[in-house]
């Protein structure tokens, strides 16, 4: 039906739009999660930057303290050397204690110079390290500034995405409402379409049932007709047999009557013969066991 097809097409279009909206929503949520992850890394970068600044300051202070200590040691050694060179007995051979003192001070001065060279090398390395650290700090600061700038843009983008997500959610809710309304309309249209179909189907079923009943009754009538024909044939056969039986019965009845007449005649004749025989036996005075007329018949 045209309306049902229109509803189905509209429903399919709404489902497709809903799928596109869900895809865009998933992509927007992925972008928001990425932005939130970057925002979460900003406090860690700030902490690292503050820690680097504190570490560089403490390292510089420690190196300055060591440099001051070395300077004091060098000044003390220079003062001791000046005192030794200005001693009045310097032209004469020094006493053993003074020689040992000079030798030990000379060794200490040599060791101090070596330490000074080592400290200078370490200081150069530390300065280079501090320079690299300063460069890293500068780069980190630049990154932090860039991240702060990008943070504002990301926050604006996040707000924009949130607004878009809200709009998508509202659109999805509206599409779902329209889908539900169209689904209800489709169900109603299908119900309206199915009611005449159900009536036609019910009428067709009733007609089929009536036809089946008529066909069954026709078959039953045909069967009854065949049975009636068979019964009529059986009645005719029975009537023929009955007439034959009656004929035989009458003939047998006549035969029985003739036999009864003959039996009565034979009985009378036997009784007469028995009486005569009995008379003869009695006249002869012989004891003969003769059967009675009743047992002989």
UniProtKB/TrEMBL annotation:
SUPFAM superfamilies assigned to the protein according to its UniProt record, in alphabetical order: Tropomyosin
Coiled-coil portions: 35-87, 130-192, 221-248
Keywords (A to Z) from UniProt: Coiled coil
Protein name: Metal ion binding protein
